[in-house]
UniProtKB/TrEMBL annotation:
Residues 45-87 form the Integrase zinc-binding domain. This is Integrase zinc-binding domain-containing protein. It comes from Nepenthes gracilis.
Length: 89
């Protein structure tokens, strides 16, 4: 397997397509569903407010999303920004 260039801290190491969907390998689960930006916004809202109505903080939000087997490259940053916006309303 080819290693990623040093400096790239993006995980994971490989991707695969199943039934037209892009998946990538996670640390906790074999496959994470790689979300498009539109899907990511939807999942951020669902997990942050829709499902548990708990308004979790950004760090926990990203963690809960990855526990649902979802992934996208900037999920932690997006989760922090999403929570900031939510709190400012
Ligand atoms: Zn909130």
């Amino acid at each position: 397997m080819q290693r990623r260039p040093s400096g790239s801290r993006e995980r994971p190491g490989w991707y695969t397509i199943v039934d037209g969907r892009l998946y990538c390998r996670g640390y906790l689960t074999p496959y994470l569903w790689y979300l498009t930006p539109e899907e990511a916004v939807y999942v951020l809202g669902e997990v942050h407010i829709g499902i548990c109505r708990s308004h979790v903080d950004g760090k926990n939000l990203a963690f809960k999303i990855i526990r649902q087997d979802y992934y996208w490259p900037l999920m932690k940053k997006d989760a922090l920004e999403f929570v900031k916006k939510c709190e400012s309303i």
